[in-house]
Design brief:
- The chain has one domain.
- By secondary structure, the protein is mainly β.
- It is 0% helix and 63% strand.
- It is elongated.
- The strands form 3 sheets. Strands 4-5-6-7 form a 4-stranded antiparallel sheet, with no helix packed on it.
């Protein structure tokens, strides 16, 4: 399971307002995967959107994380839309025992 700590700060290109995003706002979903040399790579995505005064100008950030090999957080990337990520979370993989 992907664990984020700290806070991210996303600044709007439209208004210049900075929004603080907490780890609790991230909802990770499986976005794909593929078989690789050391087993399966699983891709996860989490997105946060902030609506500004103009509904056509949504500020968002999408994080993509790779679990590869199984049980290891390989890397996390962030892509912003209509904004800039001024500060990002710290990410790590938190082991969850099977029930």
């Amino acid at each position: 399971m992907i664990k984020a700590t700290g806070a991210a700060k996303l600044t709007s290109d439209v208004t210049g307002k900075t929004y603080e995003i907490t780890p609790e706002e991230l909802e990770w979903e499986v976005a794909g995967g593929d078989e690789r040399g050391m087993g399966v790579e699983t891709l996860y995505e989490a997105m946060v959107q902030v609506e500004e005064h103009d509904p056509d100008k949504v500020v968002s950030c999408t994080w993509t994380a790779s679990e590869y090999p199984v049980g290891a957080l390989n890397h996390v990337t962030a892509v912003e839309e209509n904004g800039a990520l001024d500060a990002d979370f710290s990410f790590h993989w938190e082991y969850q025992p099977e029930d």
